[in-house]
Amino acid sequence: MRAIALTLTIAAGLGLAGCSNDGRLMNLKSGQDGPDEFAILPTKPLSMPPDLAMLPAPTPGGTSITDPTPFGDAVGALGGNPQRLANQGIGAADGGLVSYASRNGVQPGIRQELAVADQAWREANSRRLLETLAQTSVYMRAYRPMMLDPDAELLRWRRAGARTPSAPPAAEE
């Protein structure tokens, strides 16, 4: 009887402790001031336009009248260069790589074509009933026929005489 009373007392104490609302309990360094994540946001003051009828239609994901360059402002606030966000084409260091990769031509619309083919592949290799009920990922099973075995590929390239400087050293036989 005494053990039951002690167990119930401990359970009640733990239950009441779980009701507390001290936000510092999960913070291991609660005695120190941490950074305020919102302090670095370069917020701009809101302004009321002279005529509400002249406002453009809202564009979800588009620019805002109040904050036309949010990404550039965030990069600048973090010490970066906002001009580096502008699309300036292919960089000088990558020009040779792009020209070599496109030496046999570029197929227009390849991304859309691959997206359609991948959608068809995923529909053909979709979840089975038990996988749906268990809410498991079927990614590995669906794409297993397309996976490369890294060890077999490494061995194949080494047998072909290709240099593999970033691969682990060959095992001594």
Could you walk me through the main structural features you see in this protein, from its secondary elements to its overall organization?
The protein has a domain at 110-159. It is built from seven helices and no strands. It has helices spanning 2-17, 70-77, 95-101, 110-124, 129-134, 139-143, 150-159. The N and C termini lie far apart (71 Å).
Output the keywords.
single chain; 173 residues; mainly alpha; 7 helices
Give a quick precis of the structure.
By secondary structure, the protein is mostly helical. The protein has a domain at 110-159. It is built from 7 helices and no strands.
Distance between the termini: 71 Å
β-strand number: 0
Query: Beta-strand level of the residues, as a percent range?
Result: under 5%
Low-confidence stretches: none
Radius of gyration: 30 Å
Quickly count the helices.
7
Return the structural class: mainly alpha
Largest sheet, described in full? none
Q: Give the ordered list of helices and strands.
A: HHHHHHH
Shape: extended
**Average pLDDT taken over every residue:** 81
> What percent of the residues sit in helical stretches (DSSP H or I)?
25-40%
